[in-house]
Amino acid sequence: MTQFFRLSGGGNDFLALVEASHEPEPEEIQALCRRGLSAGADGLFILRRRPDTVAMKYFNADGHPAELCLNGTRCAVRLAAHLGWGEEVFDIETAIGGIRGRVLDSGSVSVDIPRPQTPRPQELEQGGQTYSGWRITVGVPHFVLPWHESLSTAPVRDLGPALRWHERWGEAGANINFVRFVERHRLEIRTFERGVEAETLACGSGVIASTAAGLAANALQLPVRAQTLGGCVLEVSPARSTASDELWALTGDARLIAEGTLHPGSLQVPAPPTWSP
Q1: pLDDT attached to residue 106
Q2: What are the angstrom distances between the C-alpha of 110 and each of 33, 39, 195, 237, 253?
Q3: How much is the pLDDT for 246?
Q4: In this structure, is residue 272 part of a structural domain?
Q5: Are 132 and 95 part of one and the same domain?
Q6: Within a domain: 25
C-alpha cells in the first residue's frame, strides 16, 4: 500500500507520490491514471525534498515522462507548502530546469517561467481542409489554432486527435489548443493533450503557448486571463520578480483535494477492449 495525494491545477488533476521508494513502471502509471477502474488522473508526479529546492518528476497518464506540466508544477508548489517544506516561495526542479513558484495570499499558486520564443506560423492539411495556426514549444510542443466561433461547438474530440498525430509533428506529436481571442486581455481555450489522449479541463503550458500566439498575432496584450473548460481562469502576466517581461507568471487555482492510500487493486485494471469487427 502506498500513500498518495490528489491535486487539481485549474482542472488538470494529478496523483502525487512523496519521497517514493521506487519510480512506478509505465504500466503502473497507466493503471493508476485509468479513470473508472483506479484512482484516475491526467498525470502523476513524484515529489522529493532537496536541501534548498523541491524536485518533481512528471508523467502523463500514458506512463511516459513529460518535460513540463505547468499546472502539475503549480500543484507541486501547493503540495510542498502543505507538507511544510517551506513558507510561500519554492524552487522546483523540473526536467527543463528550475521554476520558482509561490503560494499567494488569495490561495492561488503562481509559477515563473521564461517568456517563450516567438511562435511560428503553421498550416496543417487535414480532411481536405487547411488549418492555420501557430507552432510553439513551451517545454512541450503546442499547436495554437485560432477559433473564430464559439468554443462550445469546437470539434476538439474529433479534430483534436487528428491534428495531435499529424505527420508534421513526427513521433512526438503536439498538444492542440483551440483558442478564441475574445478581447485584448482575455482568451478562451480548450485543449486536446497528448499523453492524456483526450481533452482536459485545463492546460497550463497551452495557456502560455496561446498567449504567446495572441501577442504574435497582435490580438492580445499582457496581462491575459484565460477561461478554461473546467471553469477556472488562469492568468498570464509579467512576473513580479523582474522589471522586464523576460519572465512570465502563470497564476490560478491549485488545490489539494485528498490524500489516502493506494491498495493493490489500483494496479489490477483490465486492458482496454479490442472490439470485434
Answers
A1: 82
A2: 25, 27, 24, 10, 9
A3: 87
A4: no
A5: no
A6: yes
Q: Are the C-beta atoms of residues 99 and 91 closer than 8 Å to each other?
A: yes
For the chain, count helices (H), then strands (E): 4, 17
pLDDT for the residue 245? 56
Show which residues are catalytic.
69, 203
Are 72 and 41 members of one domain? yes
Beta bridge partners of 227: 188, 233
Beta-carbon count within 10 A of 241 CB: 12
Query: CB-based contacts of 172: which residues, under 8 Å, 6+ apart?
Result: 141, 194
Report field, pTM of the whole predicted structure over 0.90 = yes
- b or e along 21-37 (b: 16 or more beta carbons within 10 Å of the residue's beta carbon)? eeebeeebbbbbbbeee
Task: Return the pLDDT at 105.
Answer: 84
- Count of structural domains within the chain: 2
Please identify every stretch of the chain with a pLDDT value under 70, giving residue numbers as ranges: 1, 240-245
Quick one: pLDDT at residue 114? 92
